[in-house]
Specification:
The structure is a homodimer of 116-residue chains.
Chain A: E1 4-12, H1 16-19, H2 22-35, E2 45-48, E3 55-61, E4 64-71, E5 76-83, H3 92-100, E6 104-112
Antiparallel strand pairs in A: 1-5, 1-6, 2-3, 3-4, 4-5
Chain lengths: 116, 116
């Protein structure tokens, strides 16, 4: 039985300075939350790795969770959106290009809870 | 370039009462954290959906994140472990059988950040 859908989104070619900037990444995550009308429980949890490192953000949702990890040294940002109610498609490629400068965005969509 | 490994673990046939019990699910998550020597940043975030509903737990790790969502109505629990440093295998089937009564455990292992 399917209990949810998970989007695994890996963005390449991002600007390193954007991936180190918590405000930039947080604003992008808030755009995703708003556009998909996701409901956050509590506050998001954020961590900056400092120096040349990236950032991590996690939101607990009534629909499940949303996460981001950034890797400035590799120009990569990765997102998980796990959602247990149907949601419209999010324009990942366009929005990650706009916010982070991503030049290539791979989206995998997986069922959770279904037997394969 | 690969930046991490993600384990998507879907457990079927779990006991509904275990999936509703935050203490049981939290103890299982703490076992995973300890056995894999994962390093939690801050506190885990937990939410109980109440009544017949399940629980959600999220941990921000220096290695990335660990999450659980439970669905007592379907006897299903789903886990994500996203880790950016190599970790030994965790005995998912045995541990989820022990803690939750899972009768079938599906583990998918995915690279993050690699171009496919």
């Amino acid at each position: 039985m399917k209990v949810g859908t998970e989007w695994l989104v890996d963005a390449h070619g991002c600007r390193a300075e954007a991936l180190r900037d918590l405000a930039v990444v947080r604003e992008l995550m808030e755009t995703i939350l708003q556009r998909l009308e996701l409901r956050v429980v509590g506050e998001g949890a954020w961590h900056e790795f400092g120096g040349e490192g990236g950032v991590t953000g996690l939101y607990l949702l009534t629909e499940s969770h949303l996460s981001v990890h950034t890797y400035p040294e590799s120009a990569i940002a990765t997102f998980n959106l796990y959602c247990c109610r149907p949601r419209p498609d999010f324009p990942w490629s366009a929005e990650l290009a706009r916010a982070l400068g991503a030049t290539e965005v791979n989206v995998r969509i997986l069922d959770r809870g279904s037997r394969r």
